[in-house]
């Protein structure tokens, strides 16, 4: 809490601004407002603490400007789902990531301008996308299996980096039908570092420079997809199932450049978040060996022949592990909104431009809703658990809520389940030490730190052990 002098100075200069917000609870502001709370701890931890201490809505002060942190499902629905959502634009993440992504992606589009039009073009949100997605299970399995064999040769792994590349490679296969060259991965990372420097900057964005080689990397990364779109247009492959081929067949009128940008955007939308979720799963499965053994047993039952969407749909434990990882360690934990003009919310009038922070961490672990919420307990998702807390509901929204929720959520789920099934059948992902488990932040996504270990070949008999457990 700010000291007496700091609180006194805030009241002296801005005390009159506090009156209209007197009904809302929150920490005492000092000269920085309450922004000092966010200097040090991770923002999601601060938002969760506010949820525990102040309840569903917490008044914050970003310097002299008021804002709110929401931990109340009904208020979150009002901002993200109700017709009123049009009053609330995405927060400053759009400006921060703008140099890295392109104007064609829905991610940075304004609700009040062309968001709806852009959303309609996203390849993962088309009426034919479920069919495309079902066709990705087998090619992604093959790509992941190949990556796993290569990782088995490594004496030691940093899972955050290893699974990021594995994820990038699987996404490449789903996007263009094959793994992309390392130079494309390097360009991808360099562009992401540019955005990350802006997201984490303590200075105004005009003072933050982009990494050396940024412009060339951007030309290289998106140019790679543009070349592929042109080549695929010239020599179409009628039976290819990748997103590029599928998009050209189903949306022949789409501009080449736009399609190239959307294919590139898929990697920014999902590689960091999906690989972070996998690292979380690996970490928790090490902590909870029974859950791991059950995953291995179920994965073994799927390992005969190619993995298919049908087989995956019966893999309830694998799905439960994915859901539980997304509940306990969601990769995207804070999203922001800001009213375009003065807006009434939670009984107060928030000025245009105010900060609205929404975090899923507190609600995903709310003891009033979840039994034993801090424990990784995939079984909570069996026997109707998925229907009780569907994706995008009040206490479970790892992909956000409402019409602007993640456009790649279905793809992410299929990828996660495919990766868990493929890895689970072939290897045990040993983690050297599960404590302390530290999390940082990269490209707006949680970044697990220091999760090191080694893949260990699964003994076939262990993989087939205890199938009876699957029915429990
Ligand atoms: C585990 C993986 C993922 C997680 C946890 C995740 C999480 C999220 C969340 C929470 C949002 C909403 C943010 C907000 O409301 O401000 C979002 C939006 C978005 N996600 Fe994902 N995501 C994942 C995977 C993906 C994938 C694979 C793609 C690529 C297809 C993707 C593309 C997008 C896009 C384009 C948006 C913006 C949608 C819009 O503004 O209309 N995400 N994601």
From TrEMBL:
The cross-references to Gene3D superfamilies, in alphabetical order and at most eight, read: Cytochrome P450
Give the matching Pfam families: p450
- The lineage's top-level taxon is Bacteria
- Residues bound to heme: 406
The alphabetical list of record keywords is:
Heme, Iron, Metal-binding, Monooxygenase, Oxidoreductase
Q: Which InterPro entries match?
A: Cyt_P450, Cyt_P450_CS, Cyt_P450_E_grp-I, Cyt_P450_sf, Cytochrome_P450_monoxygenase
| Single GO molecular function | iron ion binding
Similarity comment: family membership = Belongs to the cytochrome P450 family.
Q: By what name is this protein known?
A: Cytochrome P450
Q: Which organism is it from?
A: Corallococcus sicarius
């Amino acid at each position: 809490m700010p000291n007496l002098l700091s609180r006194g100075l805030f009241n002296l200069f801005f005390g009159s601004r506090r009156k209209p917000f007197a009904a809302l609870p929150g920490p005492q502001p000092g000269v920085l407002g309450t922004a000092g709370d966010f200097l040090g701890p991770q923002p999601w931890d601060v938002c969760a603490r506010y949820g525990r201490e102040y309840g569903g809505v917490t008044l914050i002060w970003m310097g002299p400007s008021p804002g709110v942190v929401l931990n109340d499902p009904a208020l979150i629905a009002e901002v993200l789902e109700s017709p009123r959502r049009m009053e609330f634009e995405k927060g400053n993440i759009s400006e921060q990531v703008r140099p890295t992504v392109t104007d064609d992606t829905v991610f940075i589009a304004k609700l009040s301008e062309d968001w709806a039009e852009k959303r309609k073009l996203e390849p993962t949100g088309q009426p034919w996308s479920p069919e495309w997605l079902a066709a990705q299970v087998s090619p992604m399995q093959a790509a992941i299996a190949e990556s796993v064999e290569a990782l088995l040769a490594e004496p030691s792994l940093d899972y955050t980096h290893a699974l990021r590349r594995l994820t990038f490679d699987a996404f490449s296969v789903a996007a263009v039908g094959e793994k992309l060259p390392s130079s494309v991965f390097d360009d991808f990372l360099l562009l992401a570092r540019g955005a990350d420097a802006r997201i984490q900057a303590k200075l105004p964005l005009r003072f933050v420079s982009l990494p050396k080689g940024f412009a060339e990397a951007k030309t290289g990364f998106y140019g790679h997809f543009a070349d592929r779109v042109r080549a695929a247009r010239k020599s179409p492959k009628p039976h290819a199932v990748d997103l590029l081929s599928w998009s050209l067949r189903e949306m022949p009128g789409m501009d080449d450049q736009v399609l190239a940008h959307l294919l590139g955007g898929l990697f920014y939308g999902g590689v960091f978040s999906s690989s972070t979720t996998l690292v979380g799963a690996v970490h928790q499965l090490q902590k909870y060996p029974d859950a791991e053994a059950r995953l291995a047993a179920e994965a073994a039952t799927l390992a005969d022949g190619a993995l298919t969407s049908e087989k995956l749909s019966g893999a309830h434990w694998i799905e439960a592990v994915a859901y539980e990882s997304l509940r306990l360690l969601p990769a995207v934990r804070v999203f922001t909104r800001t009213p375009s003009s003065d807006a009434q919310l939670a009984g107060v009038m928030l000025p245009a431009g105010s900060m609205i922070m929404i975090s899923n961490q507190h609600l995903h672990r709310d003891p009033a809703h979840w039994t034993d919420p801090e424990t990784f307990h995939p079984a909570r998702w069996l026997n109707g658990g998925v229907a009780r807390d569907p994706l995008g509901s009040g206490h479970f929204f790892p992909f956000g809520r409402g019409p602007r929720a993640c456009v790649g959520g279905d793809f992410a789920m299929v990828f996660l389940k495919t990766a868990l099934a493929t890895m689970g059948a072939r290897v045990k992902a040993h983690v050297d030490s599960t404590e302390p488990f530290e999390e940082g932040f990269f490209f707006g996504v949680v970044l697990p730190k220091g999760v090191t270990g080694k893949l260990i070949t699964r003994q076939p008999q262990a993989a087939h052990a205890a199938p009876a457990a699957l029915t429990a």
